[in-house]
Amino acid sequence: MPFKLAICELHIPDLHRYMGFTETTITSHYMITSIIGIDNFYNDGYKDDISILKECYLMWLYPPEERERSINIPDNIIHPVIRNYKNIIDDGNYIKLDIVEVEYFGNVEMVAIIKTFWLRLIQRIWKRIFRERKNIIRMRKLFYKWSKGLQNTTI
Predict the structure, then answer these.
(1) 90 belongs to a structural domain
(2) Which segments within the chain are labelled E, that is strand?
(3) What's the whole-model pTM score?
(4) With 60 as the cut, is the pLDDT of residue 22 above it?
(5) 30 in Cβ contact with 126 (< 8 Å)
(6) Band (6; pLDDT cuts 50, 70, 90)
(7) Which of 3, 108, 128, 151 lies 20 to 30 A from 118 at CA?
(8) Is residue 72 part of a domain?
C-alpha cells in the first residue's frame, strides 16, 4: 500500500472509546485523524486541522476556567498501554503531519504505521556525519595537512 500524509494521534479509550474492538487491538496504535491531499499540503490547509485538534485536546484536558492559566497537563491522564502517555501528549510536536502506512480495522477505523520516524533518524545520523566531515575540511584549511588518521601513506 502506498504511503500517505496524515495527521495521527494515539488511541485514547476515554476519548475515543473502543468502537467494537478489543482493548489490546486498538489502544496501542496511532489513529488517523485526517489524510492530507497533495493540494491541501501545498496550500498549508493541514495546519488548520492541526490547530483544531490541539484545541480539542485542550478542551478535553482542562475545564474552561483552567484553560488559560494551565501550563502542565493534569496527572490523572492515563493510558492503558503506554506508561509515559502524559509526556507524549505534553510534547508540543505530538500532533503533526507524518508519512504513514494506512491499515484498516474493519470498515470503521484507520490506523497508521508511522514511517517519518525512520527519516528523522537517518537525517540525524547524516547531520552528525556532515558535521564531522566539515570539521575535517576546516582543519585541512587551517593547517594545510590532513589529520593523522586520514593521510594516505601508500603514495
Answers:
(1) yes
(2) 4-10, 30-36, 97-105, 109-114
(3) 0.65
(4) no
(5) no
(6) very high
(7) 108
(8) yes
130 — pLDDT class (breaks 50, 70, 90): very high
Q: What is the pLDDT of the chain when averaged over all its residues?
A: 77
Q: How far apart are CA 34 and CA 50, in angstroms?
A: 10
Give the SS3 label for residue 6.
strand
- Which grid cell is 150? 586520514
In whole angstroms, give the CA distance from residue 91 to residue 138.
37
User: Does 80 lie in the same domain as 12?
Assistant: yes
Alpha helical stretches, state H, 46-104: 46-61, 85-90
Tell me: do 20 and 71 sit in the same domain: yes
Measured between alpha carbons, how far is 78 from 75 in angstroms, rounded to an integer?
Answer: 8
Q: Supply 135's cell numbers.
A: 570539521
**Model pLDDT, residue 19:** 57
CA proximity to 30, closest of 95, 76, 120, 75: 95
Q: Are 142 and 105 part of one and the same domain?
A: no
With contact defined as beta carbons under 8 Å apart, do 27 and 41 qualify? no
Q: How far apart are CA 59 and CA 140, in angstroms?
A: 57
